[in-house]
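User: For my dataset I need records formatted as: sequence, then structure tokens, nothing else. Please produce one.
Assistant:
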Amino acid sequence: MNEWIVQAGLQEEEDGGDDEHEDEPPTSSGGDANSGSQTKSQEPQTHQGKLILDATCAPADVAYLTGLSLLNTAREKLEDIIVMLHAPHKGDMKKPRDRRRQVRRDYLRTAKNRKPSRSEIRKAIGQQLRYVARDMRFIEQLVPHTPLMALSRLQYRDLLVIGELYRQQREMRRSRSHREDDRIVSIAQPNVRPIVRGKAKANVELGSKVAISVVDGYALMEKTSWDSFNEGTTLVESVERYVERFGCYPEAILADKIYRTRENIRYCKEHSIRLSGPKLGRPSKQPDPGQKKLERQDMGERNAVEGKFGEGKRIYGLGLIRARLRQTSETVIALQLLVVNLEKRLRLLFGLILGDLLGMDFDMIGPRHKSFSNPYLFQRAKR
């Protein structure tokens, strides 16, 4: 749906200037030359337009929990599962002793400490790991009497997630590291992964990584992943999708330095596509003024994708995804990009309507003029 809206909008913008000449009769003079020029203009162009690429993180609505807090939450969920499995045999079978109050005191002793030392944190994590392992053994003892079918779907899923969480935390404690592949940071949303962004506001964000492309002001989703990935690897796929959508290669690709890998440069050179950014290797002692001017122009045009990220995060909720399921979160992200494109089309329509009301000839300005999206210029026009 989003791609259909983008293609329809671009087609309307391209055909906007040809409406005035539809009613004019064709001239008979120079028929051969005109027909030859028409056939030449109707030939498909191999390179047209500019492709802007970038990636960002769409943070999920989860708290950044430490290993100690995660293990405490896992222990509490296991205790509820033990109660559920023991309920049919209440009075006939002795309930396993989980010592909830003592375990809770052990957790709060470290959690409420404002500046716990590393040894205290390591000791507290070891205690919680032993408590979780003990509760999992209790569940194994209760399963022959009460099958796991008695649990709800949410409890059964939590049990599987806690098993993987216990393995990860035990391995990190054993190796004395804070790094683990596919690390779980939330039991409620086990698909969420920490994405290292290196920004000043937040070095690590919890959510999905989204790579998008911007063509003539319209945003298109290229890749969404809950695992961190190098956005430079998506350039070839983005160009191929550009060819499928518009039937030609882009004239230039405006992207960060991370996209300027040797493979991407070789691919762009083979297809006669200009890739923005400085050349690889040591910079020249005598820089070309024309190249410097072109780089500054590319940087200015590339700000369009940053504007799309800011618009989506500040206005439409891309800065905090409140959906909990993985498929729902991906749908919310796609819908927000769809709304961003619809808002752009509404701004263009508003500019045309305002031009008719004020008697201004917007066709001479052009359908892609940036003033359509600038309310300050509209206020000046009203004055």
